[in-house]
Specification:
Layout (H helix, E strand, L loop, with lengths): L2 H30 L3 E3 L1 H10 L4 E7 L8 H16 L3 E6 L1 H8 L17 E5 L8 H16 L6 E3 L4
Parallel strand pairs: 2-3, 3-5
Antiparallel strand pairs: 1-4, 2-4
Length: about 160
């Protein structure tokens, strides 16, 4: 391994960690402001009605979801729609971390609160002053940088804490 590869790899890890932290901050802030749409079907409905309000689309999976053909078809269609409508899109893994960040139960709890489908999450237009604007910019820049490298749907692994 060359020095450039070691330094480049280290910089990439730090960048991914930084973007992951920014994404978590963005999700928490957007949730507080009711700027999140959670669920594949709910997201598709919103994008059909008001695609201009969507600023970021997250597609979340873990290894056990890789064999879910229906989910993969939904993802392909959502990705195509996002690309056609200039919506930043990000694939993430780490469903358990996503549940923690959003305060969602992983299964139905004793109060009959059913677990939400976190496979697709949309962040809609925030109130620019009160939402963590820097976090949205950082995630958006990461998506844009990835597109410049011909990686149209960047990937990010959320780390357990």
């Amino acid at each position: 391994m060359t020095l450039e590869e070691v330094v480049g790899c280290n910089m990439t890890d730090k960048r991914m960690e930084s973007v992951g932290q920014a994404l978590e901050e963005l999700l928490v802030a957007a949730q507080r402001q009711d700027c999140l749409t959670v669920g594949v079907y709910e997201s598709a409905k919103l994008m059909n009605v008001d695609p201009d309000s969507v600023v970021l689309c997250l597609l979340a999976t873990d290894e056990e979801d890789e064999d879910d053909i229906a989910l993969q078809i939904h993802f392909t269609l959502i990705q195509a729609f996002c690309c056609d409508n200039d919506i930043n899109i990000l694939r993430v893994s780490g469903m358990r971390r996503l549940e923690q960040v959003l305060g969602e139960p992983s299964t139905a709890d004793s109060n009959a609160n059913e677990a939400k489908d976190l496979h697709c999450i949309l962040v809609t237009n925030p109130h620019i002053d009160s939402l963590k604007c820097q976090a949205l910019k950082e995630v958006g820049n990461y998506c844009e940088e990835s597109r410049c490298k011909n990686q149209w749907v960047p990937y990010l692994a959320l780390q357990e804490r």
